[in-house]
């Protein structure tokens, strides 16, 4: 798992995605010789999650979702308390891919399953992931033109503590609110969330600039 993490962090840049994919396939072939264990299952779960990222970069969303399902298959074999979070994360990711394919009903299936995995947990990472799910569910409902359902899930996130919302999550949240009010023809509310979005975009730009300068 440490080797996989090293490979992924080293190669997950656009110009080296193909090399990353090649190394992951080599690692998967080597892993076939290893005895069955929780460590092996964890490796497979992480490897297939990374393969999903690679397929996403090539706009092969169905292939990516297949890899996410394979990742969850191995996570279910692991007797670890944190497996629930990784399965929920995989399903959240699958849901976003279905959103990108404009398949809202399939997206909502995965988002609801993700929430089911997290229902008994209240730690900060889980609460944050739940908010990611709700924001993306809001986009699914926008695709379905179900504005009341959109408002319900986005309000959950908007009313939640800021400690459970990252900058990029707020970015998606405000974008969805703008789309919601655009559908409602509520120009004044649209302007409010456009101002919020501008503030978040400026913070993200500054943070990225600071990283580059460092």
Summarize the structure.
The chain is mainly alpha-helical and 214 residues long. The chain has helices spanning 2-11, 17-31, 38-57, 61-75, 83-100, 104-118, 124-143, 147-158, 167-183, 187-213. It is built from ten helices and no strands.
Features:
214 residues; single chain; mainly alpha; globular
Task: Write up this protein.
With 214 residues, this protein is mainly α. 79% of the residues lie in helices and 0% in strands. It has ten helices and no strands. The chain has helices at 2-11, 17-31, 38-57, 61-75, 83-100, 104-118, 124-143, 147-158, 167-183, 187-213. α5 runs antiparallel to α6, α5 runs parallel beside α7 (124-143) and α9 (167-183) runs antiparallel to α10 (187-213). The longest helix has 27 residues, at 187-213. The radius of gyration is 19 Å and the shape is globular. It starts with a helix and ends with a helix. The mean pLDDT is 90.
Structural class: mainly alpha
Overall mean pLDDT: 90
* Amount of beta strand: under 5%
C-alpha Rg, in Å? 19 Å
Major sheet details:
none
**Helix share bin:** over 70%
Point out poorly predicted stretches: none
Number of E-state strands: 0
Tertiary shape: globular
Give the ordered list of helices and strands: HHHHHHHHHH
Number of helices: 10
- How far apart, in Å, are the first and last alpha carbons? 29 Å
């Amino acid at each position: 798992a440490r080797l996989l993490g090293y490979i992924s962090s080293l190669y997950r840049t656009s110009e080296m995605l193909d090399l990353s994919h090649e190394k992951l396939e080599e690692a998967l072939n080597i892993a076939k010789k290893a005895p069955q264990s929780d460590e092996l299952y964890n490796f497979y779960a992480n490897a297939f999650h990374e393969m999903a990222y690679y397929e996403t970069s090539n706009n092969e969303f169905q292939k990516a979702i297949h890899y996410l399902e394979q990742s969850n298959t191995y996570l279910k074999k692991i007797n670890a308390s944190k497996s629930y979070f990784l399965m929920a994360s995989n399903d959240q990711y699958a849901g976003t891919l279905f959103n990108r394919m404009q398949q809202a009903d399939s997206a909502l299936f995965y988002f609801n399953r993700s929430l089911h995995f997290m229902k008994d947990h209240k730690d900060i990472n889980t609460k944050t992931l739940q908010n990611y799910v709700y924001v993306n569910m809001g986009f699914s409902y926008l695709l379905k033109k179900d504005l009341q359902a959109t408002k319900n899930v986005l309000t959950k996130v908007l009313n939640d503590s800021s400690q459970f919302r990252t900058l990029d999550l707020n970015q998606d949240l405000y974008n969805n609110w703008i789309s919601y009010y655009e559908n409602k023809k509520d120009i004044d509310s649209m302007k409010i969330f456009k101002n919020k979005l501008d503030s978040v975009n400026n913070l993200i730009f500054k943070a990225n600039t600071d990283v580059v300068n460092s």
